[in-house]
Amino acid sequence: MQYNREKIIQASLQAGCSREQSERIWALLQQDERKSNRLLKAGYFLGALLLFISSIWFWEQNTHLYGKNGFFVISLLYTVILYAVGMALKSNALVREICIFLSAASAPLAVYSYLWMNGKWDGSMREDWFIVEIITLVVAVGSLWAFRFVTLLPIAFTALWGMCWSVWPSALQETYGPFSSMFCGISLLMAGYLVHKKGLARWTFWSYLCGATALWSGLWLQESSSEWAYSMQCIAAIGFIVAGVVSKRLVFLGFGSFGLIMYLTSLLHRVFPNATLFPLVLALIGAAMIGAGLFWHRSSTRNT
Question: How far apart are alpha carbons 130 and 124 in whole angstroms?
Fold first, then answer.
């Protein structure tokens, strides 16, 4: 629903509200409208992604009908047409953003089909993946610089995360890839924090989400045979939970809670495989955490 500021304020004044109260009513209505717009935007992008995935699935299942050359032509046309439609639709910002997003997301498919068409693709070679990732990163960053669409960030971050693994030779990826992923994650989290400090809050969500994903993937994909590695994962999970509580970021709470659950599950299988009371102890700890959260919420509500 679209609200008219002057009409809302005028109606509030006629109803006996002060000017300050009328402004507050308008601000609340704007918050509701932004929330509904975010839900609508999420629905549009989810539908667009489903269409995109289904089309890729269809192409992959029917490659024998049009061959390698046809696959490259179709993927290239898909990328170019979506970009052209996004450039032309200047009156509809949301549809334009979706088209540019899908065009950038199609770039790795076009690069892959080109390499495959020329017989240069071997999925086991890190050089092939690195070429796809670097071109995808360039396309995403270029589109981001040109259009300032925040939804292009996950494409750039995904390509950057993939490069953290592809930069290592195949024999060293399992050893050093997780550390590169953790470094990438920490860098993205720091970048998100700095951007948030500058007042650009709408750019921070994807930085935090992709940074947390890269950090956790590095933590869980490294060699975890020692108790020290498991302890570091537990400390990281608790740190994420604390950061989520302090910063009020659900993404940190989600990753921290998931990591703590994974650690406790591994602890159950490694240390207490035959302990009957261990699940009961975990249940009591969980109930105590819920109770502490409720008590904290009620206390903060009373203070405000």
Answer: 11
- How confident is the chain (304 residues) per 10-residue block, as mean pLDDT? 56 66 63 56 71 70 75 86 87 83 88 85 76 92 90 90 87 85 91 84 83 87 70 84 81 84 76 66 73 67 56
Q: Is the distance from CB of 182 to CB of 165 less than 8 angstroms?
A: no
- Give me the domain span that covers residue 88: 62-167
Same domain, 74 and 140: yes
Query: For the chain, how many structural domains are there in total?
Result: 3
